[in-house]
Amino acid sequence: METKLKPVDTSVWRKKPLAAYEADMKKSELKRVLTRWGLTSLGIGAVIGGGIFVLTGIAAHDWAGPALALSFVLAGVACTFAALCYAEFASILPVEGSAYAYSYGTVGEIFAWLIGWNLILEYMMGATTVAVSWSGYFEKLLHLFGINPPIYLMNDPITAQEKAEKLRAAGEIIPDFSFAVNLPAFLIVLVVTYILVRGIKEAASTNNIIVIVKVVVVIFVIIVGAFYIDTTNWTPFIPQPVIDNSGQQHYGFNGIVTAASIVFFAYIGFDAVSTQAGEAINPKKDVPFAILASLIICTILYILVSLVLTGMVPFKDLDLKAPVAQAFADKGLTWAVYIITIAALGGLTSVMLVMMLGQTRIFLGMAKDGLLPKNMFASIHPTFKTPWKSTILVGLIVATVASLTPIDKVSELCSSGTLLAFAMICGAVWLLRVREPNLERPYRTPALPVIATLGICANLYLMYNLRTDTKISFVIWCTLGLIVYFTYSRRNSHLNQRD
Q1: Using one digit for the tens of pLDDT, what is the confidence trace for 269-310?
Q2: pTM of the model
Q3: Residue 43: what are its φ and ψ, rounded to 5°?
Q4: For residue 157, cis peptide bond before it (omega within 30 degrees of 0)
Q5: Is residue 364 part of a domain?
Q6: What share of the chain is helix, strand, coil (3-state, %, to 5)?
Q7: Measured between alpha carbons, how far is 151 from 209 in angstroms, rounded to an integer?
Q8: Angle, CA of 93, 98 and 101, to the nearest 5°
Q9: How many Å apart are CA 75 and CA 14, to the nearest integer?
Q10: pLDDT digits over 59-116, tens only?
Q11: 221 falls within a domain
Q12: CATH number at residue 133
């Protein structure tokens, strides 16, 4: 008896027609209110915050030493390759959804789903990380005013127990507690959620004010801190490599690369600009401009701040939770510590705002394509014209995780999902050039084959240098995403109606 082989199911490779994106844009209920500089402000607001105010301490203290500046250069270069590719895609497909939408129109549905799924790590876990950092700076502000709240109300359960044990070992009397929650992190996320539900214009206006203050203070840190640099703190600029018990190398070249993988989290905000294309007044021109402008501005500021901090104090003395404020405190500049701490709170708030904003817009794009339930993720509020249900859902998840989880458990997951998404985008824009050479491109990535290849290699290399436990968690997350795709998204995709 002759056995016929079943045809291979190629539906997972189906692509959303480019014409469908134009139709989606015309039907969009979102208000177009964002200008070129409003978009740039959103990009700067997303980038500056966690990296400068938090991750500089961790990356320099544990991994790179004074060579942290080189880590920022390496991460910035990898981001630049991706940004150039992002800019071309954003000019062609000015729709909400970011890397997800770009991949759906070029590579195929399964890759688009995986990218969208992993962008959840970028935006939601990124917002979680920043919320925990915000709480740390808020606690420092309270201490400046002589207020010492209970440990169990300012930290997650694990961190609270660790702090209590250290204080008891130092001779302090700390009452026992059976429960701990990071209350400030929980509450600030709820405040940001309320702002986002109210509307994009209100959110953008709030963010513009915060960004101006934040950039001014960052420049203040660079200028004032430069007068307190001791160049001996930069010697040796690249510390000798040290191998820990797990076999991980700290310092040296590998340490610099690992630090670059960690501080990559500090750059991920630039792609949040592309998620706002549906609300931009002139998306084809303004989105590419805002992506590149925000990335260039932030890269320069990061490099300068890292040089100032490692020059002000020995890198081993950098505080892990509030490195910028503590560096100035060590120099006796108490008045500056007040300014920096308040600015950090504003800066981290703006990062949360943009990350949570970007997440809801990615959900919106995926729901419009049928890959997520539309009644939850694409429900637009009749008055505020915002995806209010998904905004509230994102807010509750971020608030809960931030209140109960240590910062080091979530920060690296942000980078892993983003690095893969960026590598995919570099490949996708090249593929689209080959498939659709005559497509209108208001912005064209220069030397695309070279830029795309370098972008793929750089982002995958940084991803490879993440810690082993992070990579394992990432694989588990991707596996869960594939289960959701094959059990729900694939059969509910709107492309089924076109097949």
Answers
A1: 676 676 666 677 887 778 778 888 888 888 889 999 999 999
A2: 0.81
A3: -65, -45
A4: no
A5: yes
A6: 75, 0, 25
A7: 32
A8: 60
A9: 33
A10: 898 899 999 999 999 998 888 888 888 878 777 776 655 678 777 877 788 888 988 8
A11: yes
A12: 1.20.1740.10
Q: Which two tokens stand for residue 73?
A: 């250069």
Q: What domain count does the chain have?
A: 1
Which of the 8 DSSP states describes residue 93? -
- Through-space distance between the first and last CA atoms of the chain, rounded to whole angstroms: 32
- In this predicted model, what pLDDT tens digit does every residue of 365-400 receive, in sequence order? 889 889 999 888 888 888 888 889 999 999 999 999
Domain range for 73 is 32-492
Q: Does some domain include residue 354?
A: yes
* Contact present, 207 and 213 (Cβ < 8 Å): no
User: What's the whole-number mean pLDDT along residues 232-260?
Assistant: 89
The H or E element containing residue 362 is helix 334-368
DSSP at 181:
-
Burial (Cβ within 10 Å: 0-12, 13-18, ≥19) of residue 358: buried
Please tell me the distance from the alpha carbon of residue 41 to that of residue 442, in angstroms, as a whole number: 22
114-135 confidence digits (pLDDT tens): 888 888 888 898 899 889 889 9
CB under 8 Å to 185, separation ≥6 — which residues? 131, 132, 134, 135, 399, 402, 403
User: Could you tell me which of 426, 420, 363 has the C-alpha nearest to residue 89?
Assistant: 426
Q: Do the domain assignments include residue 479?
A: yes
Q: How far is CA 345 from CA 200, 211, 487, in A?
A: 21, 12, 42
Once rounded to an integer, what is the mean pLDDT over residues 484-496? 89
